[in-house]
Amino acid sequence: MRFPRAFPVKVLSVVTAMSVLTAGCGIGVHAANKTSSSKSPPLKVLAFWANDVSGPLTPLYTHSHAITDLAPFWYSLDAHGGLISHVNSAILHQAEKEHIAITPLINDGTGTQAFLASSITRVIAARNIADLVGKMHYQGVNIDFEPPHTRYVNQLTGFMIDLRDFLPRTDTITMDVVPHSGGAYNFSKLAPEVNQFVLMSYDEHDDGSPPGPVAALGWVENILSRMLHSVPASKIDLGIALYGYSWPVGSTHATTIPYNAITTPMIQHAKWSTRYQETYADYTTSTGPHIAWWESLQGMNQKIQLAKKDHLAGIALWHIGYANNAVMQLLLHQIGRQP
User: Fold this and answer.
1) β-bridge mates for residue 83, sequence order
2) Which terms are listed as keywords in the entry (predicted)?
């Protein structure tokens, strides 16, 4: 998954952030509440976190019961299967204090998945991860190799089997899946080893692409439908973006905009795209005209309703450091989990 850069602007108040709903999206909290259903069990909520924000995780700690697991990006694998730690001890201690289950994200620090090429380094990597989970008393682990090279499809399967064998069955393994990976995942063999697959249904457009929606509803529905042909709905978490991008007009270079840092000009010019079902704005800054697309509360709510409609296991938020109280309240209203 893309690890976005934080947007260096002042964080808006909850009241201002909520105004995006009415000013640019045409939905309010009360309207969203009407779509909530008590007939099905609450969706699981996996909350990612990455160290690219300076603000505290106050909304998370205040509403910790709104999520099921916290998946902080704390570890990377080197070419030899060794683990590189990026643990934020303050967040670790606070999460433990709040009794938040932790399933840390582990990515490929080399960007090549070279450790998968050797059966020795695969086993070393799997053993190191299993030992880490046991030592730190984590709930499980999130594997983010996005995507493994197609030539390593069998080796990836072997790695996940080794990891499952080394971990107690009570430990959770989640795996992040990149849309349109070109066949890099053998789901029929991975499904017995993996508890949940996180469909990374965001970054349809991002830094390096022309401006466009982060996760158009139709695009999300299509990639989810494709995945449902290979993976049971009960093993899928639908990814939801808590951010957007802003492009200078005529450029493909985008700046990441956390939801809790949406600017006043964006809110003032916010419009709802009926075609893509996402919020956008054409606005001007001191550097010139820009166009921004972002996942507003209305878009987040639509993805939650899609997960419910297709009876998915849950949703996965990238990432909780971009949330504010308005996002957490939406989760509480729509997921229905009680403290």
Assistant:
1) 77
2) Signal
> Where residue 210 sits, what CATH number does that domain have?
3.20.20.80
The one-character DSSP state at 234 is G
Q: What stretch of H or E contains 127?
A: helix 119-136
Task: For 124-174, write each residue's pLDDT tens digit.
Answer: 999 999 999 999 999 999 999 988 889 999 999 999 999 999 999 999 999
Q: Which ranges of 260-324 does DSSP label H, i.e. alpha helix? A: 264-268, 297-309
Rounded to whole angstroms, how far apart are CA atoms 104 and 227? Answer: 24
Residue 105 to residues 40, 317, 330: CA-CA distances in angstroms? 29, 13, 25
Closest CA to 244 of 275, 285, 204: 204
Higher-pLDDT residue of 19, 276: 276
H or E stretch at 158: helix 153-166
How many domains is the chain partitioned into structurally?
A: 1
In the beta sheet, which residues pair with residue 196? 174
> Residue 248's Cα: distance from chain center in Å?
25
